[in-house]
Amino acid sequence: MNFPKLHWTKLHSTDPIERLNGESKKRTDVVGIFPNKDAIVRPVGAMLLEQNDERAVQRSSLHDSRNHRRNERRSNHQLARSGTLILPA
């Protein structure tokens, strides 16, 4: 694959795309018939923006938790080297 390794976990399944298609169908079925192209762009565009915001929050919280674990490991290693960390038996 030519995608960055961070993207590989997202590419193993088409479930996210199918979920977006289902959500789009659900929101457009409520309206039924759209008078023009702009009328369909509004609800579908709003749904896509909503999904993008949710993914951005997920990515940032995942990034924060990875940084927290990395920093915790570093400080544990530093404490272990100095002999002040008491490891569980």
State the share of residues found in helices, binned by percent: over 70%
Averaged pLDDT: 75
What is the N-to-C order of secondary-structure elements (H for helix, E for strand)? HHH
Shape: elongated
Radius of gyration using CA atoms only = 22 Å
The stretches of 5 or more residues where confidence is low (pLDDT under 50) are none
**Helix run count:** 3
> What assembly state would you assign to the polypeptide chains in this entry?
single chain
Distance from N terminus to C terminus (CA atoms, Å) equals 43 Å
> What summary fits the major beta sheet?
none
**Number of strand elements:** 0
Protein topology:
Blueprint: H1 5-8, H2 15-31, H3 37-82
How does this model look, in words?
By secondary structure, the protein is mainly α. It is 75% helix and 0% strand. The chain has 3 helices and no strands. The longest helix is centred in the C-terminal third of the chain and has 46 residues, at 37-82. The chain starts with a helix and ends in a 7-residue tail after the last helix. The mean pLDDT is 75.
Task: Give a brief rundown of this model.
The chain has 89 residues and is mainly α. It contains three helices and no strands.
